[in-house]
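We close this part of the discussion by returning to an individual protein. Part of our work consisted of pairing the sequence of a single chain with a tokenised description of its backbone. What the numbers capture is local backbone geometry rather than side-chain detail. The amino acid sequence and the backbone structure tokens for this protein are reproduced below.
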Amino acid sequence: MSKRILVVLSEYGYWGEELVGPLRAFDRAGYETTFVTPTGKRAHALPPSMDAEYVDPPLGRPVTTPEMARATRDVDESSRLDDPLSLRDLLPERPYFSAPDHLRRLEEYHRALDAARPALLRYDALLIVGGSGPLVDLANNERLHELVLAFVEADKPVAAECYGVSVLAFARDLETRASIIKNKHVTGHCKEYDYKDGTGFLNTDFNMGPPPYPLEYILRDATAPHGRYIGNVGKDTSVIVDYPFVTARSTPDSVLAGEKLVEMLESGLRRYGW
């Protein structure tokens, strides 16, 4: 029976190769892929990720090949990403502490969460695609946190790329407040790769200077005391597997990340890159 992958995309722009790279690995393996966004709106690729001449400011060179730019445009313009699932529809929202009748609402929330999990766990693995968009609507999305926690508790693989790795740092059991990547080895967008100006998004006129937080520092803190952030700065690729997580630093790591997730599902890979 074909394996099923649930792919999370930001509504504020994903980086093309970070979807296309893993998607190719899934397609080759014959996997069924389903897409989900925070509110069910169709996701689109960030324009620079479809431009082979775009020079990435931190690296000082183009980061998208002409072939990958075309492949991203083909996926983005196809019907494949139409009608994604909605996290808002799939999972309940935790009530405010100040809500009237808070205890009853919290009990109802947990009942709804338990009822939602079986449908979510029909999927064999979860992928969170990176880009600048996740800074806006994925990193601190409590519904997405609950989705990640459900996969981890079910011992199913979770992959994240670039700024999508922020979700793993913030997904926490609210009883302990400890990150699920505590004592794990991960990679993610390193400080050297951060923009100094012009971090942009889709569906808004807002553009900021640098990202609002240095993900590397957050990951270093979240993996302590016995885990580690591994940036592999100066190396062509950085993909880390510390089961059940597959993490990828940035754009050039996307193809390898997809391959390692497939290897995890097919061959039981549990460790790579550290």
About this structure: The longest strand covers residues 32-37. The chain has a mean pLDDT of 96. The CA atoms of residues 250 and 268 lie 24 Å apart. The radius of gyration is 18 Å.
